[in-house]
Amino acid sequence: MATDTASDTGTATANEPIYVDGQSQLDDVVAERDVVLTDFYADWCGPCQMLEPIVETLAAETGATVAKVDVDANQQLAASYGVRGVPTLVLFAGGEQVEKVVGLQGEDQLRTLIETYVESR
């Protein structure tokens, strides 16, 4: 059973995005990882679909964990982070929210943002 829990919160693999369902699961991921880029997205959102391969690459190639939150399935969670439009990216470092970026961003911009916090840990 412990193995299943590890997989659900992403401790088993950090090189691909973790799909989060609910505040407690996001809290667990943020608590277990130094740097977490959280992608609040919606399946119907064109810019979110364009961002998908970028966050997958960042999950594989940076020291950050990428968490994905479907805003339609997790409306209260999205609201608690002030998400009013998608995509919204929230970056956590050391268990605290440190950055929030709204809209489609380029891979280089996001990589630089992540590396600023990964390198300082």
UniProtKB/TrEMBL annotation:
Domain Thioredoxin: 1-119
An example Gene Ontology CC term for this record: cytoplasm
Gene3D superfamilies: Glutaredoxin
Domain of life per record: Archaea
Keyword line: Disulfide bond, Electron transport, Redox-active center, Transport
Keyword presence, Cytoplasm: no
Gene Ontology MF terms in the entry: protein-disulfide reductase activity
Keyword Electron transport: yes
InterPro entries xrefs: Thioredoxin, Thioredoxin-like_sf, Thioredoxin_CS, Thioredoxin_domain
PANTHER family for this protein: GEO12009P1 (PTHR45663:SF11)
Protein's name in the database: Thioredoxin
Annotated source species: Halorubrum saccharovorum DSM 1137
Lineage per the UniProt record: Archaea, Methanobacteriati, Methanobacteriota, Stenosarchaea group, Halobacteria
